[in-house]
């Protein structure tokens, strides 16, 4: 049974949990502006001595996202709670320092591999593995381009640092690295994912969850909520995010469609 918290607020259940995994994009901001009600939630969690992680499928190191949030107006203490899918991927990428890679993604993601950028090759034919952080700037909406690009390279392994399929930047919907990775899998390629919903990112983001009651808050059923389900954590779905145009059919139909369980819903994260 899913309960809606629009009237009671997060404060009505906060005492039941020790750790809060909170998504960033779609919950804390929309890619353009911070949501002040969500910032207030972080302040209240701190006052109530609750631990939280700002867990995001961003294909960049923690520091890059921390600085981005600070520029948006989030204070240092809150921004320091960030953990990214890119950071989770870095540990493995650093062990592959003798292998060359072809990068699929925009230049803004280059800081993910700046410590081993000499292994980046310009031609896909000459790489040992594929590193997908997103889409090329000049091919942001043409998924067929990636099918043609990858068709003859399915013997190579792909590392995907953002399992999200899409994201909303303001009112504009954009494809993410996960959409490219799904194409590669359909062609027969093998993908190693880092980020939600996969277990590794939770283990890296919070070192000892044993015995703690955890809730995951996010707007994406495929990543935030599915990840919570896979870890046996409770979940809170933010309705006014990725699935805002589907929620009109009712939460029961939506969870059935995505094969997930949702404990709570809220239109936007509010205390």
Topology, pairings included?
Blueprint: E1 3-4, E2 19-22, H1 36-47, E3 51-56, H2 62-72, H3 76-79, E4 82-84, H4 85-94, E5 101-104, E6 129-132, H5 143-150, E7 157-160, E8 166-169, E9 172-175, H6 177-186, E10 190-193, H7 199-205, E11 214-218, H8 221-230, E12 234-238, H9 251-258, E13 264-266
Parallel strand pairs: 1-13, 2-3, 2-11, 3-4, 5-6, 6-7, 7-10, 11-12, 12-13
Antiparallel strand pairs: 8-9
Helix pairs in contact: 5-6
Helical coverage, percent range: 25-40%
The parts where pLDDT drops under 50 for at least 5 residues are: none
What is the overall number of helices? 9
Q: How many β-strand runs?
A: 13
What strand line-up does the widest sheet have? 1-13-12-11-2-3-4
What descriptors fit this protein?
single chain, 271 residues, alpha/beta, Rossmann fold, seven-stranded parallel beta sheet, four-stranded parallel beta sheet, 13 strands, globular
Folded structure, characterized:
The strands form three sheets. This protein has a seven-stranded parallel β-sheet, with helices on both faces. It has a four-stranded parallel β-sheet with strand order 5-6-7-10, covered by helices on one side. The model has no long low-confidence stretch (mean pLDDT 94). The chain has helices at 36-47, 62-72, 76-79, 85-94, 143-150, 177-186, 199-205, 221-230, 251-258, and strands spanning 3-4, 19-22, 51-56, 82-84, 101-104, 129-132, 157-160, 166-169, 172-175, 190-193, 214-218, 234-238, 264-266. The longest helix is centred in the N-terminal third of the chain and has 12 residues, at 36-47. α1 links the parallel β2 (19-22) and β3 (51-56). It contains nine helices and 13 strands. The protein is globular and about 55 Å long. It is an alpha/beta fold and 271 residues long. α5 (143-150) packs across α6. 30% of the residues lie in helices and 19% in strands. It has two domains: 3-57 and 197-266, HAD superfamily/HAD-like (Rossmann fold); 88-193, HAD superfamily/HAD-like (Rossmann fold), CATH 3.40.50.1000.
